[in-house]
Amino acid sequence: MKVEAQEISLSIGGKKVLNRESICCLPGKMSALVGPSGCGKTTLLNCLGLLLPVDEGSIFIDGNNVTKFNAASRRKFWRDYAAFILQDYGIMDEETVAFNVTMESSVFGRIKGNRERLTQVLKQTGLQGREEELAGHLSGGEKQRLALARAIYKDAKILFVDEPTASLDVDNRKMVIDLFTEFASRGRTVIVSTHDQEMIEACDVLHEVGKNNAIIKQVSINNSV
Ligand SMILES: Nc1ncnc2c1ncn2[C@@H]1O[C@H](COP(=O)(O)OP(=O)(O)OP(=O)(O)O)[C@@H](O)[C@H]1O
């Protein structure tokens, strides 16, 4: 799905965080939001994912203006089309790893959801065999990979990602970048806020936030899915 912002502005606490920012994120591509700390990457990502309202400008999903979506429409968008990997990971510490991925409770100790797929995504994210562990017992990097496992399990059309490699070592960072690349290669839209040079190099489009909509690198639009 195509995710587009046209000249969006947002002030928070009297400070203009986004100033007429425009961006177009295409399906099948990884789009990076880059720039120095505090330039508004997370804020822009949250606006694109309809987690934050904008003061001015418009957001379009596949050409539909979703700027004024009400709460029910936003919830439907999040449920049916979006997956988020945000800085707090959105992990439920009191629940098991399996629940955090499938979002379905186990019944009498039996894991619900697609068991085969669960096993597959946990393997892909290096969390194999840890289905029954409490998520609260995982390290920061493991929680980050758990959030990734949930997003892959859901196989959402659009993946919104904030600093996905921040707590990861070299091997896990490569694994995460490869997973996003594979996700995009299947026609998914990946939008990632990042400082990570390796992640940036793997992206198809770099959008420098707060710099008059500067696109530093852009793949040929003709190649888009
Ligand atoms: N809820 C908030 N209340 C007050 N100020 C905020 C809030 N959210 C963001 N800001 C401010 O907006 C600016 C942009 O923040 P944002 O988190 O989007 O930047 P960023 O580019 O993602 O930074 P980083 O790379 O450090 O994560 C910052 O100056 C920040 O202090």
TrEMBL record:
Give the protein name, as stated in the record: ATP-binding cassette domain-containing protein
**Could you tell me which Pfam families the record lists for this protein?**
ABC_tran (PF00005)
Q: Which SMART domains match?
A: AAA
Top-level taxon of the source organism: Bacteria
* Alphabetical list of PANTHER family matching this protein: IMPORT ATP-BINDING PROTEIN (PTHR24220)
Q: Does the keyword Ligase apply?
A: no
Q: Extract the SUPFAM superfamilies matched here.
A: P-loop containing nucleoside triphosphate hydrolases
PROSITE patterns from the xrefs? ABC_TRANSPORTER_1 (PS00211), ABC_TRANSPORTER_2 (PS50893)
GO terms of molecular function: ATP binding
**UniProt domain ABC transporter: residue ranges:** 3-222
Tell me the InterPro entries matching this sequence: AAA+_ATPase, ABC_transporter-like_ATP-bd, ABC_transporter-like_CS, ABC_transpr_LolD-like, P-loop_NTPase
* Key words, A-Z: ATP-binding, Nucleotide-binding
Organism, as annotated: Pallidibacillus thermolactis
